[in-house]
């Protein structure tokens, strides 16, 4: 029996040590050797406790459908060229239609066959025939459009999550809300403006040739060639804040996009010691980039992000190896944020901020003070009641209660959970339920003592008879908490997390730990009566 007690005590001791290892970084600044070899995760405070930023973003999913149609227009051009079907006008009209002009009426049947076999996501809604040719109005199928919109929202959610993770915000909340909205909560954020710019940037990276065959001055007066466009490069004077815009006449055709990027890193230019962003392409992207630069030596290739020209260097020779660089007189923060959005990928549709709130740290301090005060006052009242009503047995229950709170907080640190104001309410509820389990055991034990049983027999009977009731009550509450976590929103999840971890710890402390202490006094100390 002594061996049994020893091993049970060793288990409790080991769990105590592990709990302290996870819990100490929350309350103390640990030395460097600790951070290298031991867990350094802290119990993070939620938005309602430490302040931060609350955003609701609306994904403009219709733009994703427009982008898909533009991409289909490019595919149609390639297909018509391969099938040798002469065409004239080919462009998107509005948000959901494509206009395709077939110049040779005799190829109408062939085009219909292509439409059926290779462009099955498009419906033919209108056909106009004339001596000059046949005009087809094509519309993307409703089911396909809905799929594109849903995919755009899901991809935006994942992209924003990747950006925020790389930005370094501890325990952010990023989740879908409704059909096309995304909730973003960033606790403890210190630079809201920078965070908003990082989250909302579309980050569509494109490479286009500068149109050097046509006149820029005429284009600025309105004479823009049909296959060209005007985009601008912005220069900001860091001292005065003055912004100048340099126009570029560019070919509309995108030669390469950021979808082929594998990495983007901030590097320092050796000559002027200025930061720039070095980018590397995938194998396919590297081959495309090599082919593009080989075919356009001595021409200027513009690097464009979200319709802003960052640079337009002259291609001096074929560039192999799949690497390039984006320069633009960046600060280190600007270069780092640009690298983050390029690594995380572009948003598949623009996002619009429809709600923005900044929670000040003073609110967080008040919330923490009130929450801690409620925990402390509640705990003191419970401890005093247990000591007064159950005497030394109450002291054992109080020890188990303190151990329960240590296990709860250590569990939150281990699972990288966030402590919110509802989470503090979960801790208070856990304290009550932990004590309730011991009350059930002690009342059963009292009944057995009154029946004339020995202390050891009374303890055995008390624990065995109360066990089913305790497990049933706490297990059903844990199941309810799991459902709250699965289907609830942020604050409700915070309550569910602390309640679940606390109840699991409570089952261990109220049944296992207190029984171990009673067994020690009954078996080793051989006490003759119970103080209960």
Structural description of this entry:
54% of the residues lie in helices and 22% in strands. By secondary structure, it is of the alpha+beta class. It has 3 domains: 2-51 and 360-524, Multidrug efflux transporter AcrB transmembrane fold (Up-down Bundle), CATH 1.20.1640; 62-144, Alpha-Beta Plaits, CATH 3.30.70; 206-326, Gyrase A, domain 2 (2-Layer Sandwich), CATH 3.30.1360. The strands form 6 sheets. A 4-stranded antiparallel β-sheet has the order 7-8-2-18. The protein has a 4-stranded antiparallel β-sheet with strand order 3-4-6-5. The protein has a 4-stranded antiparallel β-sheet with strand order 12-9-15-16. Helix 1 packs antiparallel against helix 14 (490-524). It is elongated, with a radius of gyration of 34 Å. The mean pLDDT is 82.
What is the H level of CATH, i.e. the homologous superfamily of the largest domain?
A: Multidrug efflux transporter AcrB transmembrane domain
The computed structural class is alpha+beta
Low-confidence stretches: none
Mean of residue pLDDT values: 82
Largest sheet: 4 strands, antiparallel
């Amino acid at each position: 029996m002594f061996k049994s007690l020893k091993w049970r005590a060793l288990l409790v001791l080991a769990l105590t040590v592990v709990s302290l290892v996870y819990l100490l970084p929350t309350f103390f600044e640990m030395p460097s050797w600790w951070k290298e070899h031991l867990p350094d995760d802290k119990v993070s405070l939620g938005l309602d406790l430490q302040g931060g930023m609350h955003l609701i973003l609306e994904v403009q999913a219709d733009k994703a459908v427009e982008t898909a149609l533009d991409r289909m227009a490019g595919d149609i051009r390639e297909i018509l060229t391969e099938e040798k079907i002469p065409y004239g006008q080919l462009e998107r009209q509005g948000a959901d239609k494509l206009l395709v002009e077939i110049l040779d009426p005799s190829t109408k049947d062939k085009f219909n066959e292509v439409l059926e076999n290779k462009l099955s996501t498009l419906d033919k809604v209108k056909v106009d025939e004339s001596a000059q040719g046949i005009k087809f109005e094509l519309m993307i199928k409703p089911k396909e459009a809905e799929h594109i919109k849903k995919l755009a929202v899901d991809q935006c959610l994942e992209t924003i999550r990747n950006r925020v993770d790389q930005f370094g915000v501890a325990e952010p909340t990023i989740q879908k809300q409704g059909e096309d909205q995304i909730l973003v909560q960033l606790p403890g954020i210190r630079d809201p403006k920078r965070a908003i710019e990082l989250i909302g940037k579309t980050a569509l990276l494109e490479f286009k040739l500068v149109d050097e065959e046509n006149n820029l001055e005429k284009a600025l007066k309105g004479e823009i060639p049909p296959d060209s466009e005007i985009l601008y490069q912005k220069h900001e004077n860091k001292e005065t804040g003055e912004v100048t815009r340099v126009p570029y006449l560019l070919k509309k055709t995108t030669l390469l996009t950021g979808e082929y990027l594998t990495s983007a890193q901030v590097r320092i230019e050796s000559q002027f010691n200025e930061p720039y962003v070095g980018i590397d392409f995938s194998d396919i992207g590297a081959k495309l980039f090599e082919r593009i630069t080989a075919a356009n030596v001595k021409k200027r290739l513009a690097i464009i992000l979200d319709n802003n020209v960052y640079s337009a260097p002259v291609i001096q020779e074929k560039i192999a190896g799949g690497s390039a660089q984006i320069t633009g007189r960046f600060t280190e923060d600007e270069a780092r944020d640009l690298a983050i959005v390029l690594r995380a990928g572009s948003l598949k549709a623009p996002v619009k901020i429809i709600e923005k709130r900044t929670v000040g740290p003073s609110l967080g301090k008040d919330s923490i003070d009130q929450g801690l005060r409620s925990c402390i006052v509640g705990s003191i009242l419970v401890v005093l009641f247990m000591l007064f009503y159950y005497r030394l047995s109450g002291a054992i229950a109080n020890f188990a209660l303190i151990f329960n709170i240590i296990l709860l907080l250590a569990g939150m640190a281990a699972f990288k959970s966030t402590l919110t104001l509802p989470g503090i309410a979960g801790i208070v509820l856990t304290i009550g339920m932990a004590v309730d389990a011991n009350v059930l055991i002690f009342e059963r034990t009292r009944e057995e003592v009154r029946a004339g049983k020995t202390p050891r027999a009374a303890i055995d009977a008390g624990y065995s008879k109360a066990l089913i009731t305790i497990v049933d009550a706490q297990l059903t509450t844990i199941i309810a908490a799991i459902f709250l976590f699965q289907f609830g929103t942020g604050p409700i999840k915070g309550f569910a997390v602390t309640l679940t971890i606390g109840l699991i710890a409570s089952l261990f402390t109220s049944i296992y730990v207190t029984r171990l202490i009673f067994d020690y006094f009954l078996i080793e100390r051989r006490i003759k009566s119970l103080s209960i």
